[in-house]
């Protein structure tokens, strides 16, 4: 076993030690509505894109799009992602048993799996052994006893909706598992928000979070205004990312310069409906401009939702002071081959939005990084101030000294064992 794997084991043990005290933001709810949400997930091993997608019952292309990774590259679903990589996994946040949670994941136990390892290792602390036990009616099951190979488990995952808004602005909420070495100020800084914001969203009594706690982080988003008859009604796209819709025939992005939803043809599907605006030669996502002495006449074709198998388009015309330039979209990068294995934190570096003009002709396909592989970065989000939720339990203290000593002792044993 290599040194990175040893560190991974040590971190997973440390998380398991404090798992019984982990806190999660709880949002009461009623009804059967749901909202788009994101799960912050750190890979416990090298995994194919398709394997991660299957684990969370999502589409591989959607997983890549949510992380601004090149979802259109040939064989992208079979690319291998490195252990320790932090991903944002798209999910639907449903209302179940009176609280918000994602309940779409079904996991088939492997030999030697236990409730504890499924919770702490496979799902990286997004679920607890007690939550999995309760969701599957296993009241008497020992969390450390081996499960029957092939046994299917419902895995409830944490998420919140808060009306898909933050301070009355569109937002998608990321469920982030606090790692060993994380602090609330560091988490707030990484997502360009404030400690007060994080505390308000998670109803924290003090700016202290322990490893294993799950914080809801609001990410500014671009909101759609599709009719309720559209199958993608309520589509939200987090700033700096993409979402695929209309049977993977349309890709919608958000940012980096503004929070206006921008959709273009995706062509990931073999057969797609027409994307041309009626009574014009303008295609979805493009604009026709004509400079005049009074300004610039602009005709643009925007996406109006996927209704009864049809890509609805809307032709917008108007006079602007100047002709707009090409619309800027989030940078697409290749799936990484390496990751910074600093296990003191899993916070992904983020890059700030830049000013841009809205509208215009998309001069070329979404840009892609010239680097192949490399360390992974995620786009930044703008400062936000969120609604208050409720936390399951009092704000936890930081990891106690005995627990830190225990974690260090375990790590030393591992290092000594493998040195021998």
From TrEMBL:
What ranges does the record give for the region Disordered, renumbered to this chain? Answer: 347-399
Record-linked InterPro entries: LysM (IPR018392), LysM_dom_sf (IPR036779)
Superkingdom of origin: Eukaryota
Signal sequence bounds: 1-22
Q: Which PROSITE patterns match?
A: LYSM
For whether the record's keyword set contains Signal, the answer is yes
Q: Which CDD domains match?
A: LysM (cd00118)
- The LysM domain sits at 174-217
Pfam families documented for this protein: LysM
List the protein's name: LysM domain-containing protein
């Amino acid at each position: 076993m290599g040194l990175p794997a040893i560190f991974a084991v040590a971190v997973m043990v440390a998380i398991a030690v404090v798992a019984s005290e982990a806190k999660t933001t709880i949002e009461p709810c009623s009804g059967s509505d749901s909202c788009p949400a994101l799960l912050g997930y750190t890979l416990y091993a090298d995994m194919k894109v398709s394997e991660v997608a299957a684990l969370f019952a999502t589409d591989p292309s959607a997983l890549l799009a949510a992380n601004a990774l090149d979802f259109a590259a040939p064989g992208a679903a079979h690319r291998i992602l490195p252990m320790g990589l932090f991903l944002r996994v798209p999910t639907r946040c449903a209302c179940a048993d009176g609280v918000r949670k994602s309940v779409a994941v079904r996991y088939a136990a492997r030999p030697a799996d236990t409730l504890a390892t499924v919770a702490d290792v496979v799902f990286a602390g997004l679920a607890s052994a007690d939550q999995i036990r309760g969701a599957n009616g296993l009241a008497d099951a020992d969390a450390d006893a081996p499960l029957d190979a092939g046994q299917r488990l419902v895995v409830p995952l944490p998420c919140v909706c808060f009306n898909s808004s933050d301070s009355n602005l569109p937002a998608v909420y990321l469920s982030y598992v606090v790692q060993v070495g994380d602090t609330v100020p560091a988490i707030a800084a990484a997502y360009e928000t404030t400690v007060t914001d994080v505390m308000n969203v998670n109803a924290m009594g003090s700016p202290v979070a322990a490893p294993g706690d799950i914080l809801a982080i609001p990410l500014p988003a671009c909101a759609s205004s599709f009719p309720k008859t559209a199958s993608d009604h309520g589509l939200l796209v987090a700033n700096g990312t993409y979402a695929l819709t209309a049977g993977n025939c349309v890709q919608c992005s958000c940012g980096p310069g503004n929070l206006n939803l921008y959709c273009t043809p995706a062509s990931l599907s073999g057969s797609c409906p027409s994307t041309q605006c009626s009574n014009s030669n303008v295609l979805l996502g493009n604009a026709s401009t004509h400079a005049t002495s009074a300004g610039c006449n602009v005709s643009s074709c925007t996406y109006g939702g996927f209704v009864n198998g049809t890509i609805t388009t809307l032709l917008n015309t108007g006079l602007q002071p100047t002709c707009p330039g090409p619309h800027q979209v989030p940078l697409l990068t290749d799936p990484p081959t390496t990751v910074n294995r600093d296990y003191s934190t899993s916070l992904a570096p983020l890059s700030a939005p830049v000013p841009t003009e809205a509208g215009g002709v998309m001069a070329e396909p979404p840009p892609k990084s010239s680097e192949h592989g490399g360390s992974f970065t995620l786009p930044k989000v703008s400062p936000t101030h969120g609604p208050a939720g409720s936390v399951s339990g009092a704000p936890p203290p930081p990891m106690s000294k005995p627990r830190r000593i225990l974690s260090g002792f375990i790590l030393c044993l591992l290092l000594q064992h493998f040195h021998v």
